[in-house]
Amino acid sequence: MDLVNPExxxxxxxxxxxxxxxxxxxxxxxxxxxxxxxxxxQSYFKFYGRNLRNALFxxxxxxxxxxxxxxxxxxxxxxxxxxxxxxxxxxxxSQLELDNNLDFIETFKDYKLCVVAxxxxxxxEKLLTNYINSRPLDYVKFIIAPHNIKAPHK
Length: 154
Prior knowledge:
Elements: E1 8-12, H1 18-26, E2 30-36, H2 50-56, E3 61-64, H3 67-75, E4 81-83, H4 87-97, H5 103-109, E5 113-120, H6 122-134, E6 140-146
Parallel strand pairs: 1-2, 2-3, 3-4, 5-6
Helix pairs in contact: 1-2
């Protein structure tokens, strides 16, 4: 911590490190927890979980995924908490609400089955192109989206 000297430390979900948090608290540094999800059976909420529970109080604020996690934190008198949802889930859900149609893809597909290979690497692309070229099918279109889109990707 002396080397990095963080202004703010952000922990995500279940990544709670009590020793680190105790040091954060001791040094009066800032830390928050985002996308947190708690369950009743976790040590934080048991009689023997005092040390873990105390570590939670190093957080300036905890943003939970759901109301039940907020309620559990409030049951141990941790009140600097907000329900913000699961950031990953919310992102995927919001994408579904957008118009994701791409006219040039629709033109390319031409009402045919389209197979998309995403985040591909050269080794897999060789196999895939060999397969595509060995079995030309009029009713299938392929899109290969490499993991690395920079020029040296061969």
